[in-house]
Amino acid sequence: xxxxxxxxxxxxxxxxxxxxxxxxxxxxxxxxxxxxxxxxxxxxxxxxxxxxxxxxxxxxxxxxxxxxxxxxxxxxxxxxxxxxxxxxxxxxxxxxxxxxxxxxxxxxxxxxxxxxxxxxxxxxxxxxxxxxxxxxxxxxxxxxxxxxxxxxxxxxxxxxxxxxxxxxxxxxxxxxxxxxxxxxxxxxxxxxxxxxxxxxxxxxxxxxxxxxxxxxxxxxxxxxxxxxxx
Length: 230
Hints:
Layout: H1 3-11, E1 30-32, H2 50-63, E2 68-71, E3 97-98, E4 101-104, E5 110-112, E6 117-125, E7 132-141, E8 144-151, E9 166-167, E10 172-175, E11 188-194, E12 207-208, H3 213-219, H4 224-227
Parallel strand pairs: 1-2
Antiparallel strand pairs: 2-4, 3-12, 4-11, 5-10, 6-7, 6-9, 7-8, 8-11
């Protein structure tokens, strides 16, 4: 299946808005947010501080009368420079281009399976700036095999999980973690679609450098093809 066919497969899996966080939020509660290097408001925010970043996002939502912020696919961000997990001296190898869609809301928010599937793997990726607790689901739908990654979860989300455990679309599979466990970020879900896991278990790159970007954008299409937010 080539890249365009894979994207079409993903897009056809939903007819409209698909929730991956608590069903108490409607689509009207969501608001797009720009967290790229081009957002000059972030020049006045200490993005190395999870509390300062959370305050910025909360203020943005309050000002715009929204409850959930979302966005970030293929977005060049400066926040990753704080962590040696991403930061490299060479601009070509510095990982700063986001490959998933982030949904920013309160710690403890329920996380829902986007589609029917089964648990592929899970892991606490506890590097500074990493995903923290992470769950990856495997889906085989309409002869299309792919994976969805849910990152920045609570530690409790991994308790009792088993590989190959079946899940249903809309089922609560986790809760969001706070900065103490989620890689030191403001609470949010990193949601990513992956065609080929490349042998990874419980983890997959969620941020790319310029050099590898073309491959990753083909292997990880825009999650909003499925979620259809906005």
